[in-house]
Amino acid sequence: MANTAQARKRARQAVKQNAHNSSQRSTLRTAVKAVRKAIEAGDKLAAAQVFQSSISIIDRIADKKIIHKNKAARHKSRLSAALKALA
Questions:
Q1: Any residues with CB less than 8 A from the CB of 31 and at least 6 apart, and which?
Q2: Cα–chain-centroid distance for residue 10?
Q3: What is the per-residue pLDDT across 36-77, written as a single tens digit (0 to 9) for each?
Q4: Which fold would CATH assign to domain 5-85?
Q5: 0.70 cut: is pTM over it?
Q6: Of 32, 48, 30, nearest in space to 86 by CA
Q7: Domain-by-domain residue ranges, the chain?
Q8: Helix H or strand E segment including 14
Q9: What separation in angstroms does the CA of 85 have from each of 32, 44, 82?
Q10: Residue 64: helix, strand or coil by DSSP?
């Protein structure tokens, strides 16, 4: 347990930040799943629109350093390849 006032405050902040980051990661996973679902449905136009919105989400979360930039690039690359394979 934290002994100093500073350490207690940092522990409180860490809990709050962890909850926020977990929420952001959940948003990322939901966006990726939405693209995968659209691709499986076979509708290329709808999948492309969902893909564009998910790219924005992925980049935003990577910019905040919630996920690594290479992980973001890997997600975008694989989703893009799956979308191209749909054609």
A1: 53, 54, 57, 58
A2: 26
A3: 999 999 989 999 999 999 999 999 999 999 999 999 999 999
A4: Methane Monooxygenase Hydroxylase; Chain G, domain 1 (1.20.58)
A5: yes
A6: 48
A7: 5-85
A8: helix 5-41
A9: 17, 10, 5
A10: coil
